[in-house]
TrEMBL record:
It comes from the Bacteria. It holds the Pfam family LpxI_N. InterPro entries: LpxI (IPR053174), LpxI_C (IPR010415), LpxI_C_sf (IPR043167), LpxI_N (IPR041255). Gene3D superfamilies: 3.40.140.80, 3.40.50.20. Residues 21-149 form the LpxI N-terminal domain. This is UDP-2,3-diacylglucosamine pyrophosphatase LpxI. Residues 154-289 form the LpxI C-terminal domain.
Length: 297
């Protein structure tokens, strides 16, 4: 195992567990944010990074690199490290099994693995969770080991939504609710009391980019900053996996698209690199607010 530095437990915090926390890491900042949060809380972590997906920063923590198809090796490493709890975090592309080499553990489980890949994101992720649980592991959510990442109710930063923004926020929340029930997406954009964009399989970044392009070609028009990006969890979502996230890049993209702000579902959305995210909102002049689903402004 390659080892990076582990921060000491905060005074008086007490260990959350004597066993290390395993993080099966895909792409993006979430696995690193979870590792940093758990480490700061006094928990030992081991990252199992998926080659071609995981951010290079994972090497700053104790880690192993695992290729697609190395299912047997992954579970051997997990047992060797004494891991009993895992977090599954980060983005992944669905693998092309025709182009990867399977180890014995993958071959033995191939029918189940192939079956797991059929269906929408929620269905796939629920099957992945059961796959790990059937092997004696406890799957926990990022919010359970790094609760400081969870968005809270209220305004984050200097800028607050104006009364005229409340209708857009409510409208976009309603759209995300419907999207989630159909297992389609977790975000929507509303301007002037109507939904102008919803998230599909392309993800939030591409949704915002599409809004910016529609403004550029004149299909969407508004002066100054207006409209809101809302991000919320699906109603039926297993909060242990695929919890929605925003970060500094989300704020920068929303500002570049001319949006007035971002609203997220409090308690069910993670804010990555909170300090940098709030700083980006302050600097660009957009609001960032946490709202409970269905709550009045």
């Amino acid at each position: 195992m390659s080892a990076g530095p582990q921060a000491p437990a905060p005074a008086g915090s007490g260990p959350a567990s004597s066993k290390p926390l395993g993080i099966v890491a895909g792409g993006g900042l979430l696995p690193l944010s979870v590792a940093a949060g758990a480490t700061a809380a006094g928990r030992q972590v081991v990252i199992f990074g998926i080659d071609g997906e995981v951010d290079p920063g994972y090497r700053g923590f104790p880690h192993h690199s695992v290729r697609w198809g190395e299912i047997g090796r992954l579970f051997d490493l997990i047992r060797r490290e004494g891991v009993e709890e895992i977090v599954i975090a980060g983005s992944v592309s669905r693998p092309d099994f025709s182009s990867i080499r399977l180890d014995f553990g993958a071959i033995v489980n191939l029918p189940r693995i192939l079956a797991m890949m059929i269906g929408g994101d929620d269905t796939v992720l629920q099957r992945v969770v059961r796959f790990f649980e059937d092997r004696g592991l406890r799957v926990v959510g990022a919010q359970d080991v790094a609760p400081d990442l969870v968005a809270s109710v209220g305004t984050l930063g200097r800028h607050a939504p104006q009364r005229r923004h409340d209708g857009d926020i409510a409208c976009a929340f309603e759209a995300v609710d419907l999207l989630g029930r159909l297992d389609i997406g977790q975000a929507a954009v509303a301007v002037g009391g109507r939904v102008v964009g919803v998230e599909g399989v392309e993800g939030t970044d591409m949704l915002i980019a599409r809004i910016a392009e529609l403004r550029r070609i004149g299909r969407l028009r508004w002066k100054d900053r207006d409209g809101v990006l809302v991000k919320a969890a699906k109603v039926q979502q297993d909060m242990r996996v695929d919890m929605p996230t925003i970060g500094p890049a989300t704020v920068a993209a929303a500002a570049a698209a001319g949006l007035a702000g971002i609203a997220v579902e409090a308690g069910r959305v993670l804010v990555l690199d909170r300090r940098a995210t709030i700083a980006a909102a302050d600097e660009t002049g957009i609001y960032l607010v946490g709202r409970q689903r269905g709550a009045a402004a």
